[in-house]
Amino acid sequence: MTDTVPRPTLEAVAARAGVSRATVSRVVNGAAGVREALAARVRRAVEELGYVPNQAARSLVTRRHDAVAVVVAEPEARVFADPFFALQLRGIGKELTAHDNQLVLLLTEGREDHARVGRYLAGGHVDGALVFSLHLDDPLPGLIQRAGVPTVFGGRPGWSDGRGDVVYVDSDNRGGARDAVRHLAALGRTRIAHITGPPDQTSAADRLAGYRDVVGDADPALVVRGDFTPGGGEHAMRELLGRCPDLDAVFAANDLMAAGALRVLRAHGRRVPEDVAVVGFDDMLSVAEQTEPALTTVRQDIEEMGRLMARLLLRGLDGGLDGGPAGDPAPGPPGAAPSGVILPTTLVRRASA
Length: 353
Fold this sequence. Notes:
By secondary structure, the protein is of the alpha/beta class. It is built from 14 helices and 12 strands. The strands form 2 sheets. The chain has a 6-stranded parallel sheet with strand order 2-1-3-4-5-11, sandwiched between helices. It has a 6-stranded mixed sheet with strand order 7-6-8-9-10-12, with helices on both faces. The chain is elongated and about 85 Å long. The relative contact order is 0.12.
């Protein structure tokens, strides 16, 4: 065993800087009222000694833990297999790191995990929560509300419990879907099918609504439910070919399902885009640029969605953080109007349509 080196203390920093212990405490904890010249001496002493504040003691003073829970309402296997979640977590992580906050990842494998997550959030371990991939019957919003934790949601909320203080970040799912289907129609396609996402998620519902905005009273057989996974896209595509063998275009509600659909079309001898044009949604480059042919898709900035969620939460906690885009709302008081940010989408044309 090696001997441990004693950690520098607050008193040691005070002695090195030639100031009082109380002055060091104020500087370390970000309090006001210390002249800049003294604060600079303290910061220099902290760096020279390698002083690390005691987080427990600091929390008693600041009432902050500098930690944020990221709650993903999906099983572990789904989260680590879908690049969508990796992109969103990367955006969140970058923003939290930039403001010296820790990310605490909480996953819900099943219903029994909801109570565990609720207890953790209510236990005072984190300053706030970022929650995404909710389903309509998910109890998490109620548990979070009872825990009293400041929260920003990823995706338009789909519940209706009378709350007016919901802050969320989403993409223009309905508008993006309209752009995708209009593009297919402009190519002369008349039998445009849609592979939906899970109907209990608002992103899927909004993309289905955008599809219907363009096709109107299309043959209902052209709409098949998917689940945002490649296997779900394959299953849905096989069902569509059995129902409507004359279809000439497919709009899939995400890139993973579009990739699955492409595999089934190729296996059935359908040429893309000559026989069937295909458009996805997300523009995850690890998927869209690797399909054969490369996938035309609707781009949403997934990483920026994560960054903006974290930015809004931190701004609400700190009473206004610099660096956010103009017009970002901050979490408002109870009873305020719902505060949402909708990011634009863009159609990215490649070889599949």
